[in-house]
Amino acid sequence: MFKKILLVLIIFSSLFFVSCPYKLENRGFSSGDINVIAIPPFENWSQMGGVAQIFTREVRKRFIENGSFKVVSSPKGADAVLFGTIKSCYVTPISVKNMNLTSVYSVLITMDVKFKNLHTGKIFFYASDYVLREEYVLTGRRDFFLQMDPAIKRAAVKFSDMLITTSLEYER
Q1: What pTM was estimated for this model as a whole?
Q2: Is 9 inside a domain boundary?
Q3: Total domains, the chain
């Protein structure tokens, strides 16, 4: 009786693993047809200057560090292109310390991103109204802007890492 139950469990578990829909790589993306990725400068629709430049720089840097692709700024001659638009960037106080001085701020960035195969037209990744949030702590009265740029850079690095991981694993 025990052997029959064990046999049934083995059969069902093997069927589960064989039929599991999750795939660890995107066959179209990682099969070698994408060698050159164009990452043109991100557009900035927000009122905050410099945000798009930080995101463009960090995304390019992370793809270069990945080492699997050549990164260029123009879609001409590229196999895939990554478009990004910073739609908004807001800085909001979230914590107040003594004397009613804000000590912790939140940076909220909303963006659109599209990663497309230029040979097939296939979309590897698309996100509309993708939201990133990062916090920073003020250590002095005059370091509001000094701490904001590193917070935006941390958000850009997290976004870049997510984008690389998702793009390499995504199959549509």
Answers
A1: 0.72
A2: no
A3: 1
Whether residue 78 contacts residue 118, with contact meaning beta carbons closer than 8 Å, is answered with yes
| Model pLDDT, residue 52 | 92
Alpha helices in 23-134 (DSSP H): 27-30, 51-66
- Alpha-carbon span 115 to 35, nearest angstrom: 14
Q: What is the mean pLDDT of each run of 10 residues along the chain (172 residues)?
A: 51 42 40 84 92 92 85 94 93 75 80 92 87 78 64 86 72 40
**In-domain check, residue 6:** no
Q: Give the pLDDT score at 39.
A: 96
Residue 42 forms part of a structural domain: yes
Cβ atoms of 93 and 56 closer than 8 Å: no
Q: Which helix (H) or strand (E) holds 143?
A: none
Task: Tell me the residue range of the domain where 137 lies.
Answer: 22-169
Q: Which amino acid is it at 33?
A: D
Name the phi and psi angles at 46, rounded to 5. Answer: -80, 170
In a domain, 54, yes or no: yes
